From TrEMBL:
Lineage: Bacteria, Pseudomonadati, Pseudomonadota, Alphaproteobacteria, Rhodobacterales
Pfam families, per the entry: BPD_transp_1
UniProt KW keywords: Membrane, Transmembrane, Transmembrane helix, Transport
SUPFAM superfamilies: MetI-like
Residues spanning the membrane: 41-64, 76-99, 111-132, 139-158, 178-202, 214-236, 248-269, 354-377
Name used for this protein in its record: Glycine betaine uptake system permease protein YehY
Organism for this UniProt entry: Sulfitobacter dubius
Family to which the UniProt record says this protein belongs: Belongs to the binding-protein-dependent transport system permease family.
Length: 388
């Protein structure tokens, strides 16, 4: 999409304007300690001019490289260059600002950094979308981005940032809550699949069951997440107190069990609904041909209906996984663990960077899961002719 006779990409023009505006707001924040709000510092003031000039030049050049229409490789390179400029300013600014501050001083990215990061990420995503890469190429790009991000974090160049100092003081707890978050999100997905797939098949076969089940599952989706987690507390509290062996299995009013059960209940509608829709998407001609070949109902289900409906079924799993990665944060409010533990600790302490310690990996995990599931959905849609 281009401007009238200009040869510019309309999204590129928008990103350039937004990027220029983001340079006019504070890029970093310097605070006396981890709790106080701190003072904003502009991008050109985070260090001496000779130090910040390469980073500013890279950001401006990246925005300019994102302008031409149809030059998608150039636009991707511009986005990468811009992100490199952001990292340069961030690392040089962190060490420079802390050198003149007290022992308890903290430095953090501010609104300007986050806005510019979003602009360059959107620029890269827009260029990649215009190139229409296949699923395998998208997977390679994802692996490359994650590898670069991992290398940056592993190198320690960001260790002066407040959020990384929060991580350093809670490294063991972070690893433990990371595994707990994965257990909540992926475990509830697995449980919903075990329950939802057979239920979806039955609903596909029996219209009366479908008419009774889907409205109930839809009603569960309308319950706000906090209310759902709250409802689980008295129910599982009673189960843990009255059923022999329940507490030994970890079932109690607070903790992992109520959070897990709430996520499973939220997951059932997308799994069951998409299973029904996927199985119903099989063309009548294909089913008629299968019957003519003498296939039993089970054989038609496994060899015809399920393979043809697999993209829709996987789309339901994608919805569940991304949804549960986000909802698992609320589990921290009832002692369920996960990254929500840091989010609510940060809210209680008014420590913004502790909140980010829980929010940023949740966002990264959700984005990664969404991209991976999108790739799987597209791969299942490829026909033998497409694969040739």
């Amino acid at each position: 999409m281009t401007g009238p006779g200009a040869g510019f990409s309309a999204p590129g023009l928008l990103f350039a304007v937004l990027g220029a505006a983001a340079l006019c707001v504070p890029f970093m924040t310097l605070a006396a300690n981890r709790i106080v709000a701190g003072e904003g510092v502009m991008a050109w003031g985070v260090a001496s001019l000779p130090v910040v000039l390469p980073g500013l030049a890279a950001i401006v050049a990246g925005l300019i490289m994102g302008l031409p229409a149809g030059r998608n490789s150039l636009r991707i390179a511009g986005a990468a260059l811009g992100v490199g400029g952001l990292l340069w300013l961030l690392t040089q600014g962190a060490s420079g600002l802390l050198a003149e501050a007290g022992d308890y001083a903290r430095v953090s990215p501010s609104v300007g950094f986050w806005c510019l990061l979003v602009v360059f990420m959107l620029l890269m995503a827009d260029a990649l979308a215009a190139m229409a890469p296949g699923p395998l190429m998208r997977g390679a790009v994802l692996v490359g981005v994650l590898a670069v991000l991992g290398a940056i974090l592993w190198s320690g160049v960001l260790s002066d940032l407040s959020v990384m100092q929060e991580h350093a003081s809670r490294a063991d707890a972070f690893g433990r809550e990371f595994l707990r978050h994965l257990g909540l999100a992926f475990g509830s997905l697995a449980a919903a699949a075990v329950i939802g797939f057979p239920l979806g098949v039955l609903c596909h076969r029996l219209a009366s069951l479908r008419g009774a089940t889907l409205p109930v599952l839809s009603f569960l989706q309308t319950i706000p997440s906090l209310a759902m987690f709250g409802l689980m507390i008295p129910i599982l509290g009673w189960v843990g107190a009255n059923l022999p062996g329940a507490r030994a299995l970890g079932i109690a009013g607070i903790g992992f069990a109520p959070a897990f059960l709430a996520l499973v209940l939220y997951s059932l509608l997308p799994v069951v609904g998409n299973t029904v829709a996927g199985l119903a998407s099989a063309p009548p001609a294909a089913l008629e041909a299968a019957r003519g070949m003498g296939m039993t109902p089970l054989q038609r289900l496994l060899r015809v209906e399920f393979p043809l409906g697999l993209p829709i079924i996987l789309t339901g799993l994608r919805i569940v996984l991304v949804q549960n990665i986000g909802l698992a944060v609320i589990a921290g409010l009832i002692g369920g663990g996960g990254f929500g533990t840091f989010v609510f600790q940060g809210l209680n302490q008014t420590a913004t960077d502790l909140i980010l310690l829980g929010a940023l990996p949740t966002l990264a995990l959700a984005l990664t899961a969404a991209i991976v599931m999108d790739i799987l959905v597209e791969l299942t849609r490829k026909t033998p002719k497409d694969s040739a």
